Amino acid sequence: MKCLEQVKTLSVSMLASAAKRVVVGVDVGGTNTDAVVLNFETDALKVLASHKTPTTHDVTSGVKNAVSTVINHVLESSPLELTQINIGTTHFVNALIQRRDLVKVSVIRLCGLASTELPPFVDFPEDLRKHIDGGTCMANGGYEFDGKEIARVDEKEIITFLKKIEKDGVANIVVAGIFSPVRIDHEEFVYKIIKDYNPELSVTLSHNIGQIGLLQRENSAILNESLKPLCRKTIAQFNSALSDIGIRCPIYLTKNDGTVMENDLAMEYPVHTISSGPTNSMRGAAYMSGVKDALVVDIGGTTTDVGLISKGFPRLSSKEFRICGIRTNFNIPDVKSIGLGGGSYVRPEGNDVNVGPQSAGLKIVEESLVFSSPGKIEKKLITATDISVAAMISSLGNSENVKHLEKGFVEKAVKVIKRKLEDCIDEAKTTSEDIPVILVGGGHILVDKNDKLEGVSEIIIPEHSEVANAIGAALSQVAGSVENVKSLEDNINLPEMEKRILESMKPDMSEEEKRNTQKAIRNDFYKKVHSTLLKEARQLARDKAIKNGAEEKSIYVLEEGDIPLAYLPGSASRFYVKVIGDLEISRRSTYLISSKLNQRDTPCSQNGPVEVRKQLYTSTGKSLVEDIAETCHQMKSQCPAFNTDGEWVLSEFDVECISIGAGILGSGGGGSPYLGKLKALKALKEGKQIRVANPVRMMQKVDDENDLVVIAAIMGAPIITEEKLCGKECINSLQCMMDLYSDGYSDGEISKNGNLIKQEETIEYIDDYQSSEKSLTDTASRSMGKKQIVGIMSAEIGGLNSVEPFIIAAEKNMPVLDCDGMGRAFPELQMFTPLIYGMLPYPSTLGDVQGRRAVVLKCNTAKDLENYFRKVVVEMGCMAGVVISSLQKRDVLGKTVMFTTSLAWRIGKAVINARNAKKPTADAILGITGGKVLIIGKIAEVIRKTEAGFNTGHVIIKSINEKHETLKVEFQNENLVATISTKHREEVVAMVPDLITIIDSDNGDPVPTELVRYGLRVTVLVLPAHDILRTEQALRFVGPAAFGYPNLTYKPCGPSVNLKSVDSEYN
């Protein structure tokens, strides 16, 4: 007996020594499930076997089939030591698309008084919200951008909410704290409270999911938590399915960034796997080709994914993106996906040919011509594969079945396929230079390798290209990443720096030499601090990678850097570092497989035949049956409604139109109107009214001296607005103005009433105004002694502040005047037209969500007001609500730009109608505004930097027509100057104050300066400024010289359009 055991032991030992150490990679796509076996014993990984099988509806059946097939194939030559199985799947994005297998999620937002106007789920599609919304708690907590507390976490408040959701049966929670990516303490503390209360509750902390941008990060965390039960179930099914065929080993899931994570971690962070399909293809293509910097074009049976790889990893999206209509911002590959594949249907459309997006997909053998029996093609459909065979690009199937296709039809189809690929490649590129393309996927047979693709230096088809996605899944690396916001100034030893400066000053130095020496020393200190902060972030990233299982000696930096942040003090920057390391596979336990696996075709835990379905969505969640984006735009045009006073009562459609128009009138700046739109829509859903009054008609009824109109706006840094969202800053500032007048303010004078009035150069101010009669002026009252606020207006019709007055007016039950103070967007207060034309810049108020109310009683100039408020807004957390003085009847009628809310509405309505009719949106816009198209083309270059707190730089657009023109647009937050260049001339064709606006050529969406990037197809328009901005007086403040172009003399782009109010046309 003992001898027999020794023989068995020896036999196992001999098998193990002969076995090959392997990892199995699996990619579950929309059409096919692919699997490979990779041998990790040599420096160069070797593919031992591969297999492609149809993806099944239950997912696991296809995985079982693919895994058992590849392993059994390798076992024919040698036993295996299996380390792990890595799986990439589209299962979770499909669940979101189909609104199935999702659970309700409760959200605890740590915000104090900030962000309260836009609660969690505010921008979820209503049908998805019904599936997921499990209640919210706007709790104390959260941080400012510099890590200072907004409010302390209240443990009792958290416990009370937990008891409530426990009664409601909700067991999944998201904790999202303001600026948690900067400081995680509050989120971690609340996590401990939750787990102490009930360890069984499932929790997602937002800082583990997304980046700065509260709504997007919170949305990402909500999706993650809602998918957790499905993820646990799916991984359990994977384990069960593999156990059924005799495999017991660790399962890893592939991540969006091209790395892998253990199934325990994947069950906590399913959204990190949601777009791993395209990533797997890109990683596999890079590895098998040996090319680390290129474009990967993965052509499947139904879709084509195109993405850029750098250092062998996919370039990640640098901006927010939408999944199933939801704004998110977690790491995801920047992939362009189109409905083009080997099974794409090809149909004649008049004289043209249409290819895709609908496809035979995995039913290509049943539906296409070349795979049909001779003489049985009457009911078959023409696919892209049929075209490839007919054009003799590829050779497969029965070519006799496509010989009847007309040569002209085939040639047109080939051109359409080529153009679609070239357009997608061009959009994915980041420079205008030709770039290598690695072609993978079964659909690569559509590409004629001998016909050059525009923008491509060479086409590379690596070995095993048809299963590059599974190879990418098998590559076993892990990541560690860090992102935070740091102030360089806060980390500088200021006394030491000043000492160095003082010691370097010599008596014989000129003033210029002193300035240069001082600047050089400061730069030296800033560089050292910058280097230290980056080094600290690098170490944190390395620590995370090691924690995730990386072999320390293999870790390297994939990307790192920092982005200066506009308007923030102390030279603040967003630092980011990502490192990559190899899993320690050589030291891991292995599982010996020496006999063939049990191969069964029945689905896991399911009776009956395996269900196979066609792919209906791209890898990025876009429908192949209908264009989701277009569906969103199919809003029915509505006529405006009016009340008995003749005021225009806004509907949701009106708000949508105004928001679109305001974005276009922002001229590249002003901030996105999106957050304001959400707040306005929320007010309407709560039953409040937003009324817009014709200022001419309204001013006929007011008291010339005592009836006032106020201007309210958000002031601060765009990044802060994205994180803190806006609370009641403007409401608080307006209330302060009302209290000021109620307490007797007149002509810059007020009794102190316990307030300390301070003087600083030309400014007379109060740090934090306390009213003596708060009870007399609550938020519902507008009476202030003799004075009375009768309406509110936008400071600027372009961007975020165009919509902000709507929310205040709804809250205060007062009308918004159909006019503004800029006719567009400008960056500073002194560019407000009433101030340009002599209105006093005081009294003005600045309020934050914490209740601080700064007041300027007197100042010499509007620029003094701008400088003072910019300083105070930093103390308020870099975001506040400003009320700029108070307009009387003569100011409204003589110093504002009339009917601009109507203008924004008309522009937005024209864009929506053009989209619905599939007509050019640029023509629709110009039909309302006047002006002209400067260029239609593609962004070829973007240069940007931060100077004096402003986002500055230029963008170059290359024309798509045959004139070979380029247009250079220079910007400082807003677009300022446009210069056209040809071989023979260079000419400035547009300049501020005229509006230079860049729109997406396809849908008319405005492209702000912070989102311009290489490859975008855009149309650049110049719209005429209102005449009030074109006078000699106005040009001193808003002309070219005011923005640093003293040598440019303003030339109008054309006559101003005579604007009309909506009520004059429809009422």
UniProtKB/TrEMBL annotation:
List each copy of the Hydantoinase A/oxoprolinase domain by range. 217-363
Q: Enumerate the Pfam families for this protein.
A: Hydant_A_N, Hydantoinase_A, S-Me-THD_C, S-Me-THD_N
Query: Where is each S-Me-THD N-terminal domain found?
Result: 654-741, 778-856
Q: Residue limits of the S-Me-THD-like C-terminal domain?
A: 863-1052
Query: What GO annotations for molecular function exist for this entry?
Result: hydrolase activity
Q: Which residues form the Hydantoinase/oxoprolinase N-terminal domain?
A: 24-196
| Lineage: superkingdom | Eukaryota
Which protein, by its recorded name, is this? Answer: Uncharacterized protein LOC111128149 isoform X1
The species is Crassostrea virginica
Q: Which gene encodes it?
A: LOC111128149
